[in-house]
Amino acid sequence: MMRALVIVLAVLAGLKVWTTVQFYREGTESALVLAYRDRAIAACQSEEPVSAARAYAPLWTRPSSVGVEIGRRSADVSIWDIDHPLWQARYKHPQVVLTSDGPGHVCEYDIMEGRAYLTQADQG
Fold first, then answer.
1. Which of 73, 82, 103, 122 is the most core-located residue (most Cβ within 10 A)?
2. Of 86, 84, 88, 82, nearest to 70 (Cα)?
């Protein structure tokens, strides 16, 4: 009987920690998106190349999704290469990630640098 009570209490404690972490992450993500969404949209718009193909470029003022990630996926740095100049951007900088409705365009706005990076989303 005592063993069952200890197991139930351990499960309840684990559930409490998990829900606290989830609430913290959701609150932090929504606060960062609220604070940096407009800056990210403006930076993504300014990074678009000026060309004839601009008419087909994604309209970043209405992204299909906005989220926050840690680390810029487009930076090609291995985790063990800590002396690389882009290591901080790849593994530590918070990014506001905008995705377009179009054919897989992604804009990663680096909050620490204040700069946007345009990439193609992985297909498949």
1. 73
2. 88
Show the beta-strand stretches assigned E in 56-112: 65-70, 94-99, 105-110
CA 60 – CA 96 distance, rounded (Å): 13
Residues constituting the chain: 124
User: Do 66 and 96 touch, CB atoms closer than 8 A?
Assistant: yes
* pTM for the structure as a whole: 0.73
- pLDDT given for residue 58 in this prediction: 58
Quick: pLDDT tens for 27-56. Answer: 999 999 999 988 998 888 887 665 435 555
Q: What are phi and psi of 123, to 5 degrees?
A: -95, 120
Rounded to whole angstroms, the Cα distance separating 105 from 63 reads 10
Q: Which amino acid is at 5?
A: L
Q: How far apart are the first and last CA of the chain?
A: 51
